[in-house]
Each structure stands twice: as structure tokens, then as C-alpha cells.
UniProtKB/TrEMBL annotation:
Keywords for the protein's UniProt record, in alphabetical order: Signal
Organism per entry: Dyadobacter fermentans
Full protein name: Gliding motility-associated-like protein
The keyword Membrane is assigned to this record: no
Pfam family membership, one: CHU_C
Leader sequence segment: 1-25
Domain of life: Bacteria
Amino acid sequence: MPKPLFFRILTAILMLTAPFGQVFATHFRAGEITARRLSLSSPTYEIKLTGYFDMVSGPDAANRQDQVVFTINNTTGTGEPEFITAPRIPPIVDIGNNTTQNVYIAVYTFRTTGAYRISVEEDARNQSVLNIGPKPTNSLNFYVSTTLEINAAFGLNRTPVLRNAPIDLAAVGQRYIHNPGAFDADGDSIAYRMFVPQRAGTNGLGMNLEYNDPNLTTPPGQTEAGASPATFSINRINGDIIWDAPVTKGYYNVAFVVEEWRDGALIGQIVRDMQIIVVDARNDRPVLPPLQDICVEAGTLINQKVVATDKNGDKLTLTSASGTYDATLIKPPLATFTVANQGAQGSVTGTFLWQTSCDHIRMGPYGVLFKVEDGPSPTFPNPSLFRKLADMTSFNIRVYGPKPTGLKGTAVSDPTGTAYRLNWDAYKCQIAGAKIAIYRAERCTDLQEDVCRPGIPAGSGYEEIGRVDINQTTFLDYNGGEGLRAGVSYSYRIVALFPRPGASPTDPGYLIGGGESLASAEYCLNLPLAMPVITNVTIDSTSTTRGQITVKWIRPATATGLPAQYRLYRATGQNGTAFTKIADINTNLTPGAADTLFVDKGLNTEANAYNYKLEYYTTVNGQLTKFDETETASSVRLEQAAAQPNQVGLKWTALVPWDNGNRVHRVYREDKTKPGTFNRIAEVAVKGPQTFVYSDDGTDKYAADGTVNVTIVKDSTYCYKVETVGSYNNSQIKPSVLYNFSQILCVSSSDTTRPCPPVLTLDPLNCDSLRAHPEAFCTPSGFTNHLTWEYPAQVGGKDCDPLVTAYRVYYARYEGDSPILIATVTTPPSPLQTSFDHTGLASFAGCYYVTAVNRFGSESAPSNTVCRDNCPMFVLPNVFTPNGDNKNDTFQPLECPAFVQSLEFKAYNRWGALVYSTKDVNINWDGKTNGGKDLAAGQYYYEVTIYFESSKKQGTETSMKGWVQLLR
């Protein structure tokens, strides 16, 4: 016989045989369903209903409730339900406030993996509940449900248990707080949200009752402190339900969901339906002050004092609830809570003691709840009229692993090249299945330590390069295999990773949700320089035909394959790439030999900047063989910049591998009384990495070499040079401070000599044509922007200087960035070219302007700035088949996703549960959860937020939603 019909018949028989007056006996106040897996080899679970019964209106019915029936079905209610009888487990516990607690337990083996709903429906709720309907409430059945994700990858998973009974008295006009005291023994994350109380529907589903927020059921009131209106809320993080404050006495039922999360996926949720009993109280509630959450290293003894007070001098009972007291939920040692003066009037003090151990390390916190209830003092006139009130507070304890110690490294010989052996001390916490993770970063630096966020913080520059078992004390990092570069400082740190409590190393993703240790102290590895490094590109003389630049470098720290050779190359322009070899310099790397300097002569340093690189050759099998080449380094280019009247504006740039920022550069002006002599007039503190500026008003601001002030006047010419100051910030490179001069620039302060700004246009993009050929998007650096401009004859009725000798093209990848000079257009000589192709681009997006330069070297104001965005393309399929045949095994964009700056992808199953998320721009979803669990075949829904590369730094946001069929 189907369960609903059978139980309706049984209920009718019970009602007909019950004594008169008990036909509509009522009893259910509150309850919830919890579960725990009992076996790794089969999906067998213990399922428990904890019910709370009204002993005022229905004690007989509550006592006769010796069993309940669980309905088990899929979460949509579309399957064939199963019905499992669960007997009551004695004893019946009186928890006060005319309420008893009954516990019912059944053991059930699920048919297969998947998402299931477990529910209970029982007649009936207690009567006169004010905020639910339809009335009368004693005609409504009581219904709660819990959903579980059944999957062997979750190991012996347990739902959270709610340690605090859901029945406390609330007082009219006083703040009420309830916390369920949820504790997850597996260390999964817990979150909370409000829910509407339900009654039973069909096939295990629930139906929402007529429901009003308790705060809206009563007339508008005010908080305990007098603010208006009163409030009712739940804290999504810690589960505090606060009603501040009730107005009308009576019964109120509310429901909330306790969500269980692991690896970003919702794996279960519990509905607790609870009752709040509001009374007129002739006393004030006791008070428990908030406690600060703490983070402690495993092995720490926690000694927390808890003090509760009552301003009426009532007798106080202080209790605590937590999984830390329960050996079925955590490994010993267990915590204890003692109250030396229990029952004292006005104030009681409790002591929470917990000797933490390595077995307690986990990512999730341990919650501890404290509750104080008052009772009548000996002077209370009529104890039978006293209404007990309560207050609660809680705090969280995070237990992290001890910091690994003794990390150091040494170079060892390996067939693939040089390798580096890391060693460390044996780790304190030898937990089965735990690992040591090894991290590496370029650049040795301090790491900000936060004990409440152990491990390596995101964005710190470290990447994980390997893992070893927790009992290991060594790791070999290969130079060739891992790409360590000579001359670079590398930082190593190690972190201990722990499994989830109760997880087996054979469980997929057993480390997910486990704890971590603090990161070890740093071991800094300074690899010797195996390559020369350019240190100077300084202009010695300025001329159109006899300019001279001195290039310097330092020799490698390691010498192999002698004799060796340096080959120096030069290109015109700071960004020049058309390199020509200008010197072969043989060397035996003899200390003190003049083989690390070259003077480049016969240059046009007045019109051009120059870019240099050095190739290094060593002897291999008797032949000179290229070993490597340096990064390029340009000369310093000084130019005129906009300035106020009677001032000369200067700006300079240098594209070099060392850091010229955050230094003090030097500005020199020629002393007209001593032609050819330059006097330092200013030291400029600069911050930017490339372009620096200064305005000379004629004042000599540097007195150490004598003060030479001038008056800047119109149409006079002034000559300048600058000296940059920089460093590699690497102790292996000497000298540590690098000085380089620009060319000499002679300019006028007169605005009349400045050319007019050009008028720039940018050829439009044909996005439709590009999208018709999606293969074009697969070339990462094959795009070109075509710029054209015109030079005006007049601007504002004023003639423009016709003697323009060059145009300069500036580019900024993003709006608001400082543009950089990317080209100087000087050919053909007559007329000047007025177009430029910016080639080899990975993106069309960017901003441009153009300036004109006259015969004096004066530069115009910028042209109009023109910015361009991309033609984004991002198309997703609607089916993929992750069956391991290497065909369509991953869900990823079709063709080549174009110009994707970043994205966030989320996939949901048909019940709305998040099953997968990623920020990989290619998505690469393999049909598993983030924890490595295979998902069932079926239809999944996705939403993806994409930021396409554009001329704005934040990108252009686009949202897409759709579905995909997963086939196996």
C-alpha cells in the first residue's frame, strides 16, 4: 500500500481510538534531519531525526510518537520514493520550556550515487502559532527535509550536527538570539540562509506554508536599544538568528537552511524548523559579551574565560555546546568547559580548556557556543511566574599546522644540468596522508604572515613546484626542467598540507578542505651570473655625424668553454629591432681586461636614440657557439615637454633592463658664460619606470657645484642634458648604482617655435569580416593598426610652423596609462610620411596620439587621442563527451577565443547546485567537479562572465548563459 494512504488510514484509526479531547493532539515544535555515512564500500548512511515536542498541548501524542517514517527520493521528486521506518531511540529528554527531545534513527543504503532528499512528515504542529497558516496551525503537519550528495569521493562524509536545541524563550521588548551551534566534523564550510516553513507535498517534496516574518506579524516595534523599527535577521556566516525585539507574546515558527560546502560545491543542506516562544517577562535577560575568534598553532593549550552577568542579580546557569567535546566528532584530546560558581547570582564565570593537537588541524573553524540562562533569585516574589531568559555568544577556533623549519638548499650535479637540493627538518605533525608542498618565486622578499590565513597567500608571486609525503625532508629542483635562470634570485618556501578530518588518502580530493601550516622561513637562492649583463648606455657626445655612446657590461660570474666572445648589436630608436652587429670582442674572461666596454662612434645622437644588445658565445667542441643574449638597453632620450610661459619643459625616457624608477635623476643646463660647460641645476625624484619630467624656470636648485641662475626669456635657446640613476637591485651586479647621460638638447622657450598638433585618424575595424574568418583570431601577434594624420596650416587663426622634420607616434595600451613613444617617422624626407602601421599586435585595443617635431627639436602638443577596442569572439558548444577518447573530452570555446582578458565560468546541475567553476579563459571543463568527482551524464546550465580586452583596464564585461549536454 502506498505510504501516504497507509499512514492516513493509520492516523484515522489512532484518532478514533484516542480519548475525547485528544483527537487533535498536537506536539511538534521543531526539528531537523542529519546523516552520516557508515561505509566506504557502500553508500550506507545513518539517518537521524531530532524532534522537539510541545508537552503543554500534546504530551500524550508526543509520548506515543515511537517511530517516524523517512521518505527518500531524488531532489526533484520525480522518482519513485522509498519509505524507511525509524524507531525512537530512548530516552526522551526534557530540555525545559515544556519541551522534550525525541531522537529517531534508521540505517539506509542508497541505490546509487546522486542527489537525494530525505524528508519527514508527521501530524501535527502545535496550536496557536501566530505567523504561519492556514489556521488552525494544529491542523498542519510538520515537515522538514535534508538533501545529500551521495558520492564515494566525499569519503565518510557527515552532515553538520546542530548542537544547540532550538527552544528558548524570547521576551517582549528584549533582544532575542538563537544559534544552532552547527558543527561539521569533516571541516566542510557552513553557511546559513532563511527558509519558509513547509508542510508535506507529494513524493517527498515540501509545500510552503502561509508565512510572515515574525517581525511583521506583530505591530511595528523598536529594538531593545530604542531604535525603530525592530529587526529580524540571520547571519549567513555564523548562523546567529537575532530578533531585536518582539512586540507580541505567543508562538512563532521560522525555518533556516544549514548549507554544507566543499571545494566550492554545495554537497548538502539541512532545513531546521524551529519555534520561538515570546513571553511577557518580569525580568531582564542575562548578558554574554562577544568573544574574539582565535587562530592557534596545533599543540596550543586554549584557556578561554567566559563571564556572564545579570543586572537583576538572578541565578545564572552557564553551559556550552560544541563538537570539540564529542569523541565521535573529533579525535582526543577533547575540550572541557567548567563553571566553578554555577548557579551564582548576578555573575558566573566559565573556563573553556582545549589542548589542541596535530589531529585537530583543518581549514574550517571549530565553533564553540556558550549559553547563559537565568533563574529566580531567592528574593523573587513568585518563582512560578518567573520566565527564564537566555543569551548566547560563540567563537571560532582555527587550528593551523606548525611552521616547517630548517629549509636550505645546495647545488648538486645532475645529467640534465645543475639541480638544487632542498632540505628541511623533520616536520612536527606526522599525519597520515599529509604532504609538504614546495613553492618557488623569483625575487627574494619578505612574506606577510597571517596566522588566520596559513599557507602561501594568493598574489605573492609564489608557484607550487612539487609535493612530497609529510615524512620526507628533501626535494630536488631541476635547473633545466624548471627553467631556473642564471643571475636570478629565487625564493623557496614550504607548507604542510593536511587531509580533511576522517578522510582517507585513497579518497579523491582528500586534501581539499584540509588545513595548512604557516609558510616556512624563506630560503633565498642566488644563482651565479652565467651571462654578461649590460650596465651602461651613456651618451658621451651629441652630434649629427660624430655622436658617441659608451656601452658597458659585466662579465659572467661563471666561466666555461674558454675562449669566449661578445658580439655587440645596435638598432636605431629606443624600441629599435633592426639590429646590426657593430663589434666582435674576444675574451678569456681575465679579471681587469678591457673587454667589457665599447665606444660606439660616428652616430647621429642629436636626432636618434639607439638600442643595444649583447650576444655571448662560448667554446663548445672547439667552436664558438652562442650561449645566450642579454636583454636590450637603450640610450637616454631627452625631449622638450610642455611648460608654463618663461619655463622650459623637459622629459626623458630610457628603455633598459635595470630600474630607473624611485631614484633621483640629475638635470644639467649649459652655462652660457662658459660654452660647453654644464652646471647641475636640479635633482629630480622620479617614480615612473620610463618617462620623467622637469620644468626649468631658470633657478639653479643644486648649489654644490655653484649656483648659476638665468632668466628664461622668449626666443632664447637653452641647452640641457640629464643623467639617469638606476640599479638592477641585485647584489651580484656591480656597480650597484648605474649612471647614464642623455644627448644634449637645445630648445627655445618661445611658443611660436613649437609646431602645431597633427589631426589623427585610425582606420575602422571591420568586425563582420574578421568574424567570418575566425582562424585569424588564432594568430597571437598578427594584428595591425593603420594610423594616418594631417598637419594643419593654421590652428586658432595662428600659422603653424611649416618646418616640421619628424612625427612621433605614441601608444598606450590602456586609457589613462602614460603613452610611450613607439615610432619616429622621418622618411621620406620630402614630403614627410603621414601614416604609420603598428604591426605585430596581439590585440587591436589601445590608444594613440601623434606629435610634430620642428627643426629646433621642439615638439608639438599631442594630437587628438584615438582609442580602439577589439572585435571579441567567444562561442561555446552545447555538447561535450568526457569519455577519455581524446575527442571532444573537454568543454571549451570553439575556434580561438578572441581577446579574453579574464572570465569566471560556473556550471550548475538541474537542481541549481554549483558543480564546477573556473577562471581558465579556455574553461577546459573535463566533466568533473573541482574536487575531481565525475558528474553524471545530463544537461547542465552555465553562466560565464567575460572581460574582453579593450582600451580600458577593467575590460568590457559581457555575461553569457546557456546549457550544455554532457554525454558519456
